[in-house]
Amino acid sequence: MQIGIVGLGRMGGNIAVRLTRHGHDVVVYDRDAAAVEKVVARAEAGRAIGASTLADVADKLTGPRKIIWSMLPAGPITEETVMSLAGLLQRGDIVIDGGNTYYKDDIRRAKVLAEKGIDYIDVGTSGGVWGLERGYCMMYGGTKEAADHIDPILAALAPGIGDIPRTPGRDTGTDLDPRAEQGYLYCGPAGSGHFVKMVHNGIEYGMMQAFAEGFDVMYRKDSPLLAEEERFSLNMADIAEVWRRGSVVSSWLLDLTAQAMTKNGELSEFSGEVNDSGEGRWTIEAAIEEAVPVPVMTAALFTRFRSRSDNTYAEKVLSAMRYGFGGHVETKE
């Protein structure tokens, strides 16, 4: 298939390249012309062409049904892009938003585009800077017909079943979607994909915070505040490594933590100032609307707020994990 990719940052560029590796053709655009040139150079030969504007992307797409994937930060830039595409595309075309958009914005935009006969698909995309090789876990929403139409695109981006053991009983469940085992899932109408991804990120906040606090407790075990016989000088990198081997807390987040600590157990390259990208806040807002208690995720979000004025080793662990999976670089004053 042929698809336009708008926004060639840490994930958008890799999405475009991965698609070309799986036999798809891409038309790529970014406000930074150098980013366009780099993606075209990295893509499979002959499968990527650059565009100079959004209109140029639409013009260079061929075939009866044009598909354009926006991979931009949530907020005004995505709003502007989607509405601009609505004026450039025709009935039956498809706009995909693969960024971390607020799901209520998806619902609104889908209605606006539907009035023009254009389908809108929201794709919650997880995989960070590792997605090029590992693939992307995707949760998506929109009309079922449009979602089925772009299935070859999503299948190419998904990680596949790989070497992860199958969940016992899935092969007997008649109402279970086989695509979930491949790493992508149709969640329902517009907004549902980003809603599921939003909650995913809220959970991520809580998991990261638990690791960060646990390592902080161990890091401070040699504190002069303790009796001398109760002080332990513990090696954080070795502890992270041993937990990766058969422990019930083993995970990709722990893998990234071990990697960072192996390079520098003090994590001195990180200030511990941890930003939040919005999904944690939105998850808590949804929980309030539904009257669902989420104390862990709420505390994790508030800790990120506090980290911007008073940093501890725990915040450095959080920063190291965020850099590991998403390439998030701390903001320097």
Task: Give an overview in words.
It is elongated, with a radius of gyration of 22 Å. α5 links the parallel β5 and β6. The protein starts with a strand and ends in a 7-residue tail after the last helix. It is α/β, with parallel strands linked by helices. It has 15 helices and eight strands.
The biggest beta sheet is recorded as: 8 strands, mixed
- Rg, nearest Å: 22 Å
Average pLDDT metric: 94
Termini Cα gap: 45 Å
Please give a quick description of this structure.
An eight-stranded mixed sheet has the order 3-2-1-4-5-6-7-8, sandwiched between helices.
Quickly list its features.
eight-stranded mixed β-sheet, alpha/beta, 15 helices, 333 residues
Topology (elements, then pairings):
Elements: E1 2-6, H1 12-21, E2 25-29, H2 33-42, E3 48-50, H3 54-60, E4 67-70, H4 76-88, E5 94-97, H5 103-114, E6 119-126, H6 131-134, E7 137-141, H7 144-149, H8 151-157, H9 179-182, E8 184-188, H10 192-219, H11 236-243, H12 252-263, H13 279-290, H14 295-307, H15 313-326
Helix pairs in contact: 1-2, 10-13, 10-14, 10-15, 11-12, 12-15
